[in-house]
Amino acid sequence: MTEPHDPAPAPPASAARPAALNDLSEDALGFGARELVTMRDLLLRPRHVLEAWMTAGPSGGGHYARPLRLYLGLNAILMLILFLRGGTTLMLAGVPDLYLQPLIEASGKSRDGFLADADGWMTLVLVPLVSVAYACVAAPLLRWWDPETLGWRRGFRAAFAYLCAWTVPILPFAWWSFSTDPVGQALGLALILVGIVTFLRMGAGRWWRAPAAGFGKAVALSIALWFAGTVGLLPVLAIGLLAGRFG
C-alpha cells in the first residue's frame, strides 16, 4: 500500500501578495506587471522592444505585452483623461452657428442638451477612430522602410509598436494637452518632437540607417500622422452631430 502524498505546500504569503496585486491591477485597469515592464522598456530601450516584437512574435517571446493590447489600454487612459477634462466641447465650439443652430432646432432639444449628447458620443469614439487612422497611415510606411518583407500583420504590429512607444512618454502630460491655452499649444508641438525622437530611437538599424535619412523619415511620418489625425476627426464630428440631432 502506498503512502498518501502530502498536499503541495501553499506559496508563502510574501510571494502570493504581488501576484494578487498584479491580478487586481490587470482586472481593474487592464495593466499588469507585463504591461508595466513593456512601458518601462519602451522608455529605456525602445529598439530592443521593437526587435523582440518583430522577431519573437507579438508577445516578444513572452517578455512583453502585445502592442495592440497595450495601445488599447493606453487609449483607455487617454479617454478617461479626455472625459475628466470636459470631453470634446472645444471641437463643438469650433462649429459655426450657421450650421449648428439648425441642427439644435431640428432636434427639439435645448442647446445644452444637444451639446451634451454630441459630446458624449464624440468623447467615446474620438481616441479609437483617430488611433485607427494613425495605424492605417503608419503601417504602409513602416512596411516600406523595413528591409524585411513584413506582410500586413507584422506591418500593423510595427505601427502599434511605434504608437505605443510614442504614447508612453506623453501620457503623464496628457491632462494639459487637451486644451487650447499656451500650455496645450506648447505640448502639441512637444508631441511632434517626441514622435520624431521616438522614431529615431526605436527604428535605428531597421527603419533607418543614415541619421539624415532617419530624420527625414521621422518628419514624413509625423506629417502623415498629423494628416491622418485631422481626417480621423471628421467622422468623430459627424457622429457627434448625428447623436445630438437624433440621440
Describe this structure in words.
This protein has 247 residues and is mainly α. The protein is 77% helix and 0% strand. It has eleven helices and no strands. Helix 2 (33-44) packs across helix 3 (46-56). The longest helix is centred in the last third of the chain and has 36 residues, at 211-246. The radius of gyration is 22 Å and the shape is elongated.
Biggest pleated sheet = none
The overall average pLDDT, rounded, is 85
Number of helices: 11
Distance between the termini: 74 Å
How would you describe the shape? Answer: elongated
Order of helices and strands: HHHHHHHHHHH
Write down the Rg: 22 Å
Give the % helix: over 70%
- Derived from helix and strand composition plus strand pairing, the structural class reads mainly alpha
By DSSP, the count of extended strands is 0
Q: Roughly what fraction of the amino acids lie in strands?
A: under 5%
Ranges with pLDDT <50 over ≥5 residues? 18-25
